Amino acid sequence: MKNHDIGKRLLLGAVAGLAGTMVMDYLRKSTHDAMPGGEPPMRVDPGKFIVKKGEQVLPGKLRRKIPRKAEDVAAKSLGIGYGMTFGALYSLLHPRGGGAIRDGIALGLLNWAVGFLGWLPASGVMPPVWEHESKQIALPMAQHAAYGAATVAAYDALVTVV
Questions:
Q1: Residues sharing a CB contact under 8 Å with residue 106, sequence separation 6 or more, in sequence order
Q2: Is 47 left (phi over 0), alpha (psi -120 to 50) or beta?
Q3: Burial of 92 (C-beta count, 10 Å sphere; 0-12/13-18/19+)
Q4: Quick count: other Cβ atoms within 10 Å of Cβ 124?
C-alpha cells in the first residue's frame, strides 16, 4: 500500500470521526433533559483536566500567560480530537469500510471502554464504573454506540465517493 493511500484513509477516518462526534454531542445535549442523572459522574471536565496536566509541564511564568479563552478552546477541542482519532484508527483497520451496525457499535463501545474503563477512572476524572448508577452506564454506552455507527456510516460513504 502506498503512503498517500494511508494518509487519505486517515484523513477520511478523521472526518468520519468528526461526524460521529457531532452526532454524539447532539445526543448528549438532547438526552440531558430527557434523562436527568444519566450523565456520568465526572469529578472534573476531561478536557480541562488534560489541559491543566499539560500546563503543569510548562514553566510557571509561561503557564500564567496562557489566556483562559485558549484553555477553554483547547479543552473543548480535545473531545473532538478524541472522536476523530478513533475514526482514523478505524480507517486503518477497515480500509474499505464495514457495517455501520456491527463495526460501528463495536467502535463506539471500544471508544467508551477506553475512557470509562481506562483512563478516566485511572486519572481520577471519574469514579470507577462499578460505582455508577445503571443509567450512568447505559446512557453513555448508547451514545458511544451511536457515535460509532455514525462514524462508520460516514467513513463508508466517504470511501465510496472519494
A1: 148
A2: alpha
A3: exposed
A4: 10
Where are the domains positioned within the chain? 3-161
Measured distance CA(132)–CA(126) in Å, rounded: 9
Give pLDDT tens digits for 95-139. Answer: 999 999 999 999 999 999 999 999 999 999 999 999 999 999 999
CB 31 within 8 A of CB 138: no
Global confidence as pTM: 0.91
